[in-house]
């Protein structure tokens, strides 16, 4: 779709060099002496298309007002919802407390890392339609109606 020798915008802006989706660009692959902001107007990152599926090995900056094709790539993010039964050791623990919820997430993250999950995994609590994360579950095996706090969903 792009002809040989064409400049293409790679989605990078000179706003602390951020990607077009607003995420930070920690990866840098500039040509030597680039970015140089020639004339004070080069605020976009670009690459040159060679042939086939080949690109130049380095980036350069160019004027964003120059119109060129845009190329992008994306990282497929997977999302999984997991239901977890949670029984606090301390019956006075307030599971609606944000600090407690964050501590639980950190403990779960630590356990997942120990099982080979990457460090950049993001865990969040998923609220139900009633805006609650936890609900009480009745213990059906007991004569008395004992209730336990149960987390409804954990999203990561």
Automatic annotation (TrEMBL):
InterPro entries in the cross-refs: C-type_lectin-like (IPR001304), C-type_lectin-like/link_sf (IPR016186), CTDL_fold (IPR016187)
UniProt-annotated stretches for the region Disordered: 137-156
C-type lectin domain segment(s): 1-73
PANTHER family: C-TYPE LECTIN DOMAIN FAMILY 20 MEMBER A-RELATED
Name listed for the protein in its UniProt record: Chondrolectin
Organism this protein belongs to: Salmo salar (Atlantic salmon)
Lineage: Eukaryota, Metazoa, Chordata, Craniata, Vertebrata
Name of the coding gene: LOC106577974
């Amino acid at each position: 779709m792009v002809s040989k020798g064409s400049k293409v915008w790679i989605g990078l802006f000179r706003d602390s060099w951020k990607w077009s989706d607003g995420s930070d660009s920690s990866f840098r692959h500039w040509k030597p002496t680039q970015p140089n902001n020639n004339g004070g107007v080069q605020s976009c990152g670009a690459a040159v298309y060679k042939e086939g599926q080949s690109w130049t090995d380095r980036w350069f900056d160019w004027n964003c007002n120059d119109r060129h094709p845009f190329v992008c790539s994306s990282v497929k993010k997977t999302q999984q919802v997991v239901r977890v039964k949670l029984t606090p050791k301390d019956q006075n623990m307030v599971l609606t407390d944000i600090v407690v919820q964050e501590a639980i997430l950190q403990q779960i993250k630590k356990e997942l890392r120990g099982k080979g999950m990457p460090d950049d995994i993001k865990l969040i609590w998923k609220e139900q339609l009633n805006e609650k994360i936890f609900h009480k579950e009745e213990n059906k095996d007991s004569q008395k109606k004992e209730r336990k706090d149960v987390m409804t969903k954990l999203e990561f």
